[in-house]
Amino acid sequence: MKINSVIARSETTWRSRSGLLHPQLRVRNDTSTRGFTLVELLVTMSIIMVVTIVGMVSYSNINKQTRDSRRMADLEKVRVALEMYRQVNGSYPVNTSTLVTDNFLQSVPVDPKDPTYIYAYVRSDAYHYTYHAYLELGSGSTGTTCGTAINCNYSVSNP
Asked: Fewest CB atoms within 10 Å of the CB: 2, 15, 41, 145?
């Protein structure tokens, strides 16, 4: 009995000094180490959300740049066809569908976001034209409409 009282007394003494039991006398409690705390989960979810948002914004801008590059390439392709048409016929066509019927183009290109945006061909006379498009990452205006209330901000014209 004296030994048990010494162990109990030393246990309470150990607790009172450090707030913990001696490692050999401590009762193991596994339930406290089995999960994540609410703060850990919130921090992890916040980090995932920030990374996701940054990725979505980057992806959106890359898509806009890709569409703008295609628009510029389309306008350049039509410009080359218009110049070839003028060399053969002496003047520019009234509309771009003539380029297809006369085999200068396989098809008239359409904007990647058609019908929201369109390409606008303006022939001022037999020797002058301007072909307009709207670039999503561009700025300014050419004074021509490239869709419903959308001003074009990129154009090619005869040299």
From this structure: 2
Report whether 131 contacts 79 (CB < 8 A).
Answer: yes
Structure pTM? Answer: 0.67
Tell me the C-alpha distance between 117 and 115, whole Å: 5
87 close to 99: Cβ distance less than 8 angstroms: no
On the 0-12 / 13-18 / 19+ scale of CB atoms within 10 A, 81 is buried
pLDDT tens sequence across 93-137: 999 999 999 999 999 999 998 888 889 999 989 999 999 999 998
Tokens at residue 109, please?
């290109």
In this model, does residue 74 exceed pLDDT 60?
A: yes
- Per the DSSP assignment, residues forming a β-bridge with 123 are 129
More confident residue, 91 or 13: 91
Residue whose token pair is 């919130």: 42
